[in-house]
Amino acid sequence: MRVAILISGGGSNMVRLVESMAGDHPARPCLVLANSADAGGLAKAQEMGVPTAHVDHRRFKGGREAFEKELQNVIEEHGSDMICLAGFMRVLTEGFTRLWEGRMLNIHPSLLPKYKGLDTHQRAIDAGDAEAGCTVHEVTARLDDGPILGQARVPILAGDTAETLAARVLEQEHKLYPAVLRRFASGERGRIDWG
Ligand code: GRF
Are residues 51 and 132 in the same domain? Predict the structure, then answer.
């Protein structure tokens, strides 16, 4: 199974996914693709010997479809069988998600269906929640809404800020996403629930 990983920033989840795809793992990374040339994760991917590319979404003024067509070209050129979104901060249209339905995963830093969208940690703190966490789900046309494949829960502690909570959740993301990917690439569909 050849996996394309899409990033926008530092790519800490991408790094763990690439590191996990070794030995008897049924998948291998075939591409790390960013929506800008200055995504920090591109250099990390190159250091790990993974082919990289970037498609700058700002080159496609207003043309979301044109941007996604270029993404699709690059992803196909690298022979990808599936996609992992990992800190990829562009919303994908229904046209693109339909192409990859059942073959595209995303990690979201909340316990979906709670807190779709942005600022998930601050919203959980403001709501007085006792716990937070992260979710790996299949990507569908509706944002942060597809079938859930795995979740990891962490406590929200007195005095937590969005930053301290984000750090606690990110630690779990780095374990959950590789575990879900291995299960998904093996053809298993049992949901993972931790914490
Ligand atoms: C993480 O919080 C992840 O949940 C979200 O993007 C953030 C940064 O991820 N999708 P990464 O360090 O770029 O993998």
Answer: no
Structural domain that includes position 64: 1-100
The minimum-distance atom of ligand 1 relative to the CA of 169 is 2
Based on the domain organization, do 82 and 50 belong to the same domain? yes
Q: Which of 57, 78, 108, 137 is catalytic?
A: 108
Angle between helices 40-47 and 12-20 (to 10 degrees): 20
Distances (CA, A) of 55 to 69, 84, 162, 189: 10, 16, 30, 32
78 is catalytic: no
Per-residue pLDDT of the chain (195 residues; tens, 9 = 90+): 999 999 999 999 999 999 999 999 999 999 999 999 999 999 999 999 999 999 999 998 879 999 999 999 999 999 999 999 999 999 999 999 999 999 999 999 999 999 999 999 999 999 999 999 999 999 999 999 999 999 999 999 999 999 999 999 999 999 999 999 999 999 998 999 999
Are 6 and 92 part of one and the same domain?
Answer: yes
Ligand 1 neighbours (beta carbon < 6 A) = 7, 9-14, 86-87, 107, 109, 134, 170, 173
